[in-house]
Amino acid sequence: MPQHVIDTTQLQCDKGTTPTPITVTSQSFMSIDGKLQATEEDNQPNINIKPFGICGILRSSCTPSPVKWDNASNFEIEGKKELLDISTCRCSVGGKISVVKSAQNFMEE
């Protein structure tokens, strides 16, 4: 079952060398474990998505250039689709950004 993407969830670009956490700024009231849920509008370079180290295409700093999140949930927060750990975002340079590690904490029973 897909998990929700929340603030500090680790993202990775398949052309970058380093994962980076997402910073949620698109909404301010829906949260899980005290962290805001991400939406499809959390795609601003250097605000929501930080650089991914060195870009394998440009051979320089992997500054994200996100185009659009795909595979978002049908559920909306203030008219914006929420992101899931299966969501991906194309980069206009040629990479694909995806979730590598959820920030959600689950208790085992």
Automatic annotation (TrEMBL):
InterPro entries: DUF4280. Pfam families: DUF4280. This is DUF4280 domain-containing protein. It comes from the Bacteria. The lineage of its organism: Bacteria, Pseudomonadati, Bacteroidota, Flavobacteriia, Flavobacteriales. It comes from Chryseobacterium fistulae.
